Amino acid sequence: MAKTNFQYEKRQKELEKKKKAEEKARRKLEAKNNPKPADGSESDEPEADDADDADPAAEGDAPVQPQ
Description:
With 67 residues, the chain is mostly helical. It has one helix at 6-33.
């Protein structure tokens, strides 16, 4: 009967943890560089029922300034 290679399994778990940590750090950095709206929506445009609450300067009269 073959013995289980616990060192291999442990190394695979460590690599998976490291990969997850790097992905989380990358997402955190992206979020810091590209902040999203406070309401949690992912789109930059207001929804149809929120149109009356929209910023009047963002309607298209003034050019959008890149940040």
